[in-house]
Amino acid sequence: MTERLDGPQDPPVDSTGGPTSGPDTPPKRRRLGPSPTIAIIFLMPAALLLGIWVVYPIGYSIFRSLFDASGQTFVGLENYGTIFSDGGTLRTIRNNLIWVVVAPIVVTTIGLIFAVLTERIKWATAFKLIVFMPMAVSLMAAGVIFRLVYDEDPDKGLANAVMTVVGDTFSSAQGYPEARARTGDESPVAAEEDGTVVTKQPVEAGQPVLIPIVGVKPEVMPANAQPAVAATGGDGLAGTVWFDFTPGGGGVNGQPDATEKGLPGMTVEAVSDGQVAATATTAEDGSFRFEGLSPGSYVVRLPADNFTAAYNGLTWLGPTLITPAIIGAFVWVWAGFAMVLIAAGLAAIPRDALEAARIDGASEWQVFRRITVPLLSPVLLVVFVTMIINTLKVFDLVFIIAPPSVQPEANVIALEMWRVSFGGGNNQGLGSALAVFLLILVLPFMIMNIRRFKRGDS
């Protein structure tokens, strides 16, 4: 008698020990895509190039940083100690810190402002194209452009040309550096300690004022200067400011001669009881006249500003402004990149959230601060971290824009690495240590960005 067993039965097996196919056996899952072997074959060329161009240089740099300049003597961590003990290298690290703090914030902020504002204009595409256009220019070319923009000569440098035009708009005075009043017992004027020139005696309407000036350099004499003419008083207070010097000698001191030129563009003040009652500017022949003066006596004064050099802008490429000037060039290049990325994130924001806030009575600033910025925070963080990586690696702009005389003031780690290794230092041990130090600084931000991309937060 055969006993029947109830319950699940083991599936039949074949000779290899695996289950045989049958009506109750699930079909095998087929692999989608190529097999791992084929994938490895196609990845090998890229992995080989990655090893040659990335892995090997990193490994060799770490190895080389442990040797001296000649590469023959093992010095351990001595090169890394030099990085934090040398004054020039510490200044380089300080400059990099300024870059990391300032440049990413400015680029991200400007990109956010442009992205938000371009949503409200009809020609947004054209504007974005113009702002993004510097990205098509290499950093080397951008450095050449801004080297010209920051030229100190207003006739060449755009920045100083704009500043001098604005300055001349609000100040019509002509500068005559190192010029001074002709003094002496017979001179009608005297020079005060601050450089101001004043008449020795008060003058009244109808009494012409003569102000002789000497020490005017030929190169600062305006091309439009005309022969000086002794102004007549008439019904008002008038006078003449002129260069009291006759080429070749001769002439009468304190009196305008036929060959002596007036000094145009000088500011002249009529002072009464210590207060400026009226102001005039000398004409091409040096003459001036005060209009609307009340009857009385006045001291005529030439302010000290007349004897300072004319405003020619700022020394952008000097040791004080060189780092901010280069950061400005960096912002010009990367602002378009930040704007495009943030604009893409802005387009993905649900509009119903913005409209709901406006319906609830929120102002545009409140919508921007409480709705737009929080929803854009993942994109803003990606842009910000990317800019930090770019600032840590900046080399081209500093190398091209900063003149050799001020490069130590504008130096950054990447440029110092090149200078120490190949720019005359010939110390590839210290240069390799700087390269490894820069890699250590960049790695955390790269890892942060990679993790965000893997999570799909951006």
TrEMBL record:
Keywords: Cell membrane, Membrane, Secreted, Signal, Transmembrane, Transmembrane helix, Transport. It is a multi-pass membrane protein. Residues 93-449 form the ABC transmembrane type-1 domain. SUPFAM superfamilies: Cna protein B-type domain, MetI-like. The chain crosses the membrane at residues 38-56, 97-117, 129-150, 321-350, 371-389, 430-450. It is found in: Cell membrane; Secreted. It comes from the Bacteria. Coiled coil: none annotated. Residues 14-23 have a biased composition (Low complexity). Residues 1-31 are annotated as: Disordered. Belongs to the binding-protein-dependent transport system permease family. This is ABC transporter permease subunit.
